Amino acid sequence: MAMSFFDQFASPSYLGVPLIAIAIALPWVLYPTPSARWINNRLITIQGWLINRFTNQLMIPLNIGGHKWALLFASLMIFLITINMLGLLPYTFTPTTQLSLNMGFAVPLWLATVLIGMRNQPTVALGHLLPEGTPLPLIPVLIIIETISLFIRPLALGVRLTANLTAGHLLIQLIATAVFVLLPMMTTVAILTAVVLFLLTSLEVAVAMIQAYVFVLLLSLYLQENV
């Protein structure tokens, strides 16, 4: 039983073909394609309004050079939210519970922000490794600490998203199992547990959206330091 709780995080395959590719490609099929008409339907209008609001919120702290990343950040945000939400449906697989996938997003994007800073303003980028006014004996130690914290950033991005989604899925499965076990023996307790399960599922929906937003927000903050 303990091992079966973690079976949901194993990448499924059919006839030897990993289905994670379908899970990654599916979100883009679900969204309607905007048309060239001036008047669209309500769904496309709401979709466009949400994307514009999110993009404006991210781009406000950035200068003009950072606005080139608007399309990438908006696409990544929509992609992560959709995958996280689809993973809450029964008999589905959540690719973002895989640390390898999240690190595949975090490391290249983080590295791109660092390389942009080193190319455009190397003095400012290297200046982040040593806070102003540092006493002379502490300079070597602080440079080592800041360098380690810089390289930990992509790991923190990937682990944060993986850990939050994995913990939520495990809690939902544990409480759902408790409901089925308690239902024949203690109906009242099972009903109360089902109410807790419903509340936890609602919370997990919020977590799925918030974690996608936090992932992109932190990338924008890393970009802000280097543009």
Automatic annotation (TrEMBL):
<feature type="transmembrane region" description="Helical">
    <location>
        <begin position="138"/>
        <end position="159"/>
    </location>
</feature>
<feature type="transmembrane region" description="Helical">
    <location>
        <begin position="101"/>
        <end position="118"/>
    </location>
</feature>
<dbReference type="InterPro" id="IPR035908">
    <property type="entry name" value="F0_ATP_A_sf"/>
</dbReference>
<feature type="transmembrane region" description="Helical">
    <location>
        <begin position="12"/>
        <end position="31"/>
    </location>
</feature>
<keyword id="KW-0138">CF(0)</keyword>
<keyword id="KW-0066">ATP synthesis</keyword>
<dbReference type="InterPro" id="IPR023011">
    <property type="entry name" value="ATP_synth_F0_asu_AS"/>
</dbReference>
<dbReference type="InterPro" id="IPR000568">
    <property type="entry name" value="ATP_synth_F0_asu"/>
</dbReference>
<dbReference type="Pfam" id="PF00119">
    <property type="entry name" value="ATP-synt_A"/>
</dbReference>
<feature type="transmembrane region" description="Helical">
    <location>
        <begin position="69"/>
        <end position="89"/>
    </location>
</feature>
<keyword id="KW-0813">Transport</keyword>
<dbReference type="GO" id="GO:0045259">
    <property type="term" value="C:proton-transporting ATP synthase complex"/>
</dbReference>
<keyword id="KW-0812">Transmembrane</keyword>
<feature type="transmembrane region" description="Helical">
    <location>
        <begin position="205"/>
        <end position="223"/>
    </location>
</feature>
<comment type="subunit">
    <text>Component of the ATP synthase complex composed at least of ATP5F1A/subunit alpha, ATP5F1B/subunit beta, ATP5MC1/subunit c (homooctomer), MT-ATP6/subunit a, MT-ATP8/subunit 8, ATP5ME/subunit e, ATP5MF/subunit f, ATP5MG/subunit g, ATP5MK/subunit k, ATP5MJ/subunit j, ATP5F1C/subunit gamma, ATP5F1D/subunit delta, ATP5F1E/subunit epsilon, ATP5PF/subunit F6, ATP5PB/subunit b, ATP5PD/subunit d, ATP5PO/subunit OSCP.</text>
</comment>
<keyword id="KW-1133">Transmembrane helix</keyword>
<comment type="similarity">
    <text>Belongs to the ATPase A chain family.</text>
</comment>
<keyword id="KW-0999">Mitochondrion inner membrane</keyword>
<keyword id="KW-0496">Mitochondrion</keyword>
<feature type="transmembrane region" description="Helical">
    <location>
        <begin position="171"/>
        <end position="199"/>
    </location>
</feature>
<keyword id="KW-0406">Ion transport</keyword>
<protein>
    <recommendedName>
        <fullName>ATP synthase subunit a</fullName>
    </recommendedName>
</protein>
<keyword id="KW-0472">Membrane</keyword>
<dbReference type="GO" id="GO:0005743">
    <property type="term" value="C:mitochondrial inner membrane"/>
</dbReference>
<keyword id="KW-0375">Hydrogen ion transport</keyword>
<dbReference type="GO" id="GO:0046933">
    <property type="term" value="F:proton-transporting ATP synthase activity, rotational mechanism"/>
</dbReference>
<dbReference type="InterPro" id="IPR045083">
    <property type="entry name" value="ATP_synth_F0_asu_bact/mt"/>
</dbReference>
